[in-house]
Amino acid sequence: MQHDFFKYQAQTTQFAAGFEVEKAVGSYIYGKDGKKYLDFVAGVSANTLGHSHPKIVNAIKTQAEKYLHVMVYGEYAQEMPVKLCKLLADSTPEPLEVTYLVNSGAEAIDGALKLAKRYTGREEIISFHNSYHGNTHGALSVSGNEYHKREFRPLLPMVSFIHFNEDKDLEKITEKTACVLLETIQGAAGFLVPNDDYLKKLKARCEEVGALLILDEIQPGFGRTGKLFAFEHFGIVPDILVMGKGMGGGVPVGAFMSSEKIMHSLSHSPKLGHITTFGGNPLIAAASYATLKEVLESGLMNEIDEKEKLFRDLLVHPKIKNINGKGLMLAVNLGSPEFTLDVAKRCMERGLVVFWQLYRNEYLRISPPLTLSLEEIREGCEIILKVLNEN
Ligand code: PLP
C-alpha cells in the first residue's frame, strides 16, 4: 500500500512518513505493523474525543440510516445541522448566535472574510505575522508566512500584517479596516498565547474604528484550552468566530459564527453571498453535534488544567528550553528543527505519535485527544524523556 500511496496519492512533501493505519480507538492508533501507538497529536488538534468515540460513531450510523446528502446548504431544514447551530448559540456568549456550516477551516476563514467585507462595505483586511489560516487562495492571502505564499502570487490585495502581542501596531487598524483576523492562540508559530490585556485592547481598537474582530479558533475550538473556545479566557467576544478541526471530532468540517445582524448580510445584495453544496451535511453535522454535546456534558473541560499541569511537571529536561501554549495545545521547544524532527521520529519508533509546529519546527507539538488519561500522559512523557536521554 505504501508504494501506491507514494505513487498515486498526491504528496505534500518529499518526506512523508507513509505510516499504514489498521484502526484507531481512544488514544491509540494501531498500525498495520501490528504495533500500537499512543497519539499525542490527535490528527493535528482534530480528534477532540479520541479515535472512533462510540457516541460519534453511533451518531454517524444513525444519521446514515436516515439520509445522507439531500440538498445544498441553506435550502432545507435538516435536523442535525439545525441542532448543532442551536447548541452552538446556546453555548456561546452574545451576540454570537448564527452559524454558517462549511467544509473546512480554510473555507470558514474565506467565508468570514467575505462576511466582514460585505457587512462593513470596507476592503482592507489586517492579519498577523506568523499566522496560519489555511490554504485556499483567500486563507493563504491572510496567512503571515512568506515562504508558503511566495510562489502563489498574486493573492488577495488589501491585506496587511501586524505583530502579535504588539500594542503599538494597533494604530494600524483604522476606519478603512473591514476586519482584523487572528488566531486566539497562534498555532503554526508555536502556540503563542496573547498577553494579559492584549485581546481587550485589540477589541477596543476595533470597536473604536468600526472594524470587525474575527477570531480563528480552529485549533482551540471545542474545549482544548479548558473552555469551549479560548477567547473565553480573555474577557472579550469576537464579532465573528471561526472554528473547524476539533469541532468535528474526526470528520471534515468548518464554521463561522456571528450575530444575526451581521450574518444576515450574506443572504441579500447579493443573495447567495456564500454558498456550498456539502456545508451542513447531515452526517458531518451529526458527528459535530455529538462531539459538542459530549464536550459540554462530560466534564472533560474541567480536567484540562490538571492534564496541562501534569505535562508541564513531567516534561522537565535540560534539552527542553521552554513549553508554550495553553491547555492541551502545548509546544515543546527542543532548540533546533533537526533535533525535533529526529526526536519525533524516535518517539514514533517507541510507540508515541508527536509532531512539530508548521512554521517553528524546533517546537514539538503536543495536541492529544482531550480524553487522554493521566496514566497515558505519564506513559507518553516517559517515552519523550527516554528519547531525550538517548544522546
Ligand atoms: N486556521 C488554523 C489556526 C489552523 O490550524 C488550520 C489548520 O491547520 C486552518 C485554519 C485551516 O483549516 P483546514 O486545514 O481545515 O482548512
Q: Layout of SSEs?
A:
Layout: H1 2-8, E1 21-25, E2 28-31, E3 36-39, H2 42-45, H3 54-66, H4 79-91, E4 98-102, H5 105-120, E5 124-128, H6 137-141, H7 146-149, E6 159-162, E7 177-183, H8 198-209, E8 212-216, E9 240-243, E10 254-258, H9 260-263, H10 282-297, H11 304-314, E11 322-326, E12 329-333, H12 337-349, E13 352-353, E14 355-356, E15 363-366, H13 374-390
Parallel strand pairs: 3-13, 5-6, 5-7, 7-8, 8-9
Antiparallel strand pairs: 1-2, 2-3, 4-10, 9-10, 11-12, 12-15, 14-15
Helix pairs in contact: 3-10, 4-10, 11-13
Bound molecules: pyridoxal-5'-phosphate.
Architecture overview:
By secondary structure, the chain is an alpha/beta fold. The chain has two domains: 2-11 and 18-53 and 300-390, Aspartate Aminotransferase, domain 1 (Alpha-Beta Complex), CATH 3.90.1150; 56-297, 3-Layer(aba) Sandwich (Aspartate Aminotransferase, domain 2). The chain contains 13 helices and 15 strands. The strands form three sheets. Strands 4-10-9-8-7-5-6 form a seven-stranded mixed beta sheet, with helices on both faces. Strands 1-2-3-13 form a four-stranded mixed beta sheet. The protein is globular, with a radius of gyration of 21 Å. The chain starts with a helix and ends with a helix. The structure holds pyridoxal-5'-phosphate (PLP). Pyridoxal-5'-phosphate binds at residues 104-106, 109, 132-134, 183, 187, 216, 218-219, 244-245, 254.
